[in-house]
Structures are given as structure tokens and as C-alpha cells.
Amino acid sequence: MSAANITVNSLLEMKQAGRKISCITSYDASFTRLIENAGAEVLLVGDSLGMVVQGRESTLPVTVDEMVYHTRNVARVRQGALLVADMPFMSYRTPDQAMETAGRLMKEGGAQMVKLEGGGAQLEAVRQMTSHGVPVCGHLGLLPQSVYKIGGYRVQGREKEGAERIMQDAFALQDAGVQMLVLECVPAVLATEIAKAVVMPVIGIGAGADCDGQVLVIYDMLGMNPNPPRFVKDFLQGRESIQAALSAFVESVRQGEFPGPEESFS
After folding, report:
1. According to the annotation, is 47 in a ligand binding site?
2. What is the pTM of this model?
3. Which of 51, 67, 181, 193 is the most exposed place for a label (fewest CB within 10 A)?
4. How many other C-beta atoms are found inside a 10 Å radius of the C-beta of residue 263?
5. Residue 184 catalytic?
6. Which one from 36, 41, 184, 263 is the annotated catalytic residue?
7. Do residues 219 and 236 touch, judged by C-beta distance below 8 A?
8. pLDDT of the chain along its 266 residues, tens only?
9. Is 131 annotated as a binding residue?
10. From CA 49, how far away is CA 58, in angstroms rounded?
């Protein structure tokens, strides 16, 4: 089981002690129970639900109402893991709008932390939220909400300029009050450098094994995606149950066995 009352401070202590953090997406009560039974420290209600639950081509159509609904489903049965909810596309264009969205996700949905995508452009909104007691998780690298702008789901930060920008954004977000950071689809060497340089825990997805923790979309890691990203491993393959698969993921993260080179980028 997840330890009772995991907080942002708990995750910081895990980073400082060199203990890996496991995070799995969840959108409903049933999966939440299984994930917590497996011992994951973080539950992420991701706007990825637009693709894996709703069958859409991207995360962009997901609404705040839908995020509140799914977050509430998870919150009803959550026991101890930290509950993080994505702020959907165009729901934090201004600091005031960000406050409104975060307020709904926390007050109506039961989220304990909100996550938004982007660096410099989001600093004002981040400062507004954190100054009012809202725990914020950042998201850099591949930004699914910007997929049309960047021309697809591509590894970010391979060029020197891009890598420097991601590093600068990580420090800027931390200075603005962000307490956790997700790095998606960046070279493992860049992710390692960022995780060592910042104080906040860094959770990787397609970012190599040296991040402070790892996150996967639950449907991907259970082999339910016919075209999974390269950074995904099917943890259900060769195992007798979903519970065993989730436990295997958590243990593999804790032991530093996942991701391996085949699930990482150079």
C-alpha cells in the first residue's frame, strides 16, 4: 500500500534520500485502488484521458469540467498517494484563469496539486497560484498540449539551444514556486543534469532512468495501446493480473530497472 498521507514534502525527502518515486495515471475509482495497492506514491489524473478514455486524437479537447469529474472519482477512494490533476488546454491563459481552474480542481475535484505545461510563458500564473497556497507541478520537454505547434510527438532538447531553454525553464519554474517537475521525451543526459541541478523532484516519462521518479499512462503500461510510445513497457505481459503488473512497475522504478536504454532517448 502507499504510505499514508504522501505530500510534496514526502516526495522531496524521497529525492534527498535517493529513493525513487513512482507515479501512474488514474481516471477512476477501480484503477485508483489497484494503483495504491501497488504502492505508487503519486496518482496523476492526466488530460491524457482525452485520448485513452474518450478516444480523441489529442488532449486538447478535454475540458475543466471533465478533469474535475475524473479527479473527483479518484479522490473518493484515494487513501494516501498524492493526487495531482492536469490543468487542461487553454484553462490557464491568465493568472486569474489559472487560479479559477486550480480552485475547481482542488475544491470540487479533490486534487492536492495541479500540473501545467510550459516554462517562461506560465511563470506569472505559477507565481499567482503558489502565492495563494496552490501546490504546482510543472511539465517541460514534449508538451502534448502544444503538439500541433511543435509538429508532432517528438523528442525535445536534443539541440544545444533547446536543451538550454529547457534547463532555464526548469530553474525559472522552481524559482516561481513549482514543487515538482515532469520531464517528457528529452534525452536522458539532459534529464539527469536537470534532476541533479534542481531541488524539486523530477519525474520522467521517456527521460531516462536518472530522474527522481517515473510516470506512465496506465493504459499504455498494461499493453492496451496498439501503438505505444517507445518509452513505454508492457508490464502486463507475462504476468497474471493487472495488480501484478502495477506492482511490477512500482518495483522496477524503485530498483532503478525502469526505464532501460530501450525506453530512453539519446
Report:
1. yes
2. 0.97
3. 193
4. 21
5. yes
6. 184
7. no
8. 455 699 999 999 999 999 999 999 999 999 999 999 999 999 999 999 999 999 999 999 999 999 999 999 999 999 999 999 999 999 999 999 999 999 999 999 999 999 999 999 999 999 999 999 999 999 999 999 998 888 778 999 999 999 999 999 999 999 999 999 999 999 999 999 999 999 999 999 999 999 999 999 999 999 999 999 999 999 999 999 999 999 999 999 999 999 999 999 99
9. no
10. 9
**CA 237, CA 265: separation in Å to the nearest integer?**
23
Taking each helix axis from N to C end, the angle separating 188-197 and 160-176, rounded to the nearest 10 degrees, works out to 30
Residue 113, helix vs strand vs coil: strand
The 8-class DSSP code of residue 122 comes to G
210 is in an annotated binding site: no
Q: Which domains does the chain have, with CATH numbers?
A: 8-263 (3.20.20.60)
Report the amino acid identity of residue 111.
A
Please state the φ and ψ torsions of residue 250, each to the nearest 5 degrees. -60, -45
Concatenate the DSSP letters of all residues of 172-234 into one string.
Answer: HHHHHT--EEEEES--HHHHHHHHHH-SS-EEEESS-TTSSEEEE-HHHHTT--SS--TT---
48 annotated as ligand-binding:
yes
Is-contact 84 111, C-beta < 8 A?
yes
65 is in an annotated binding site: no
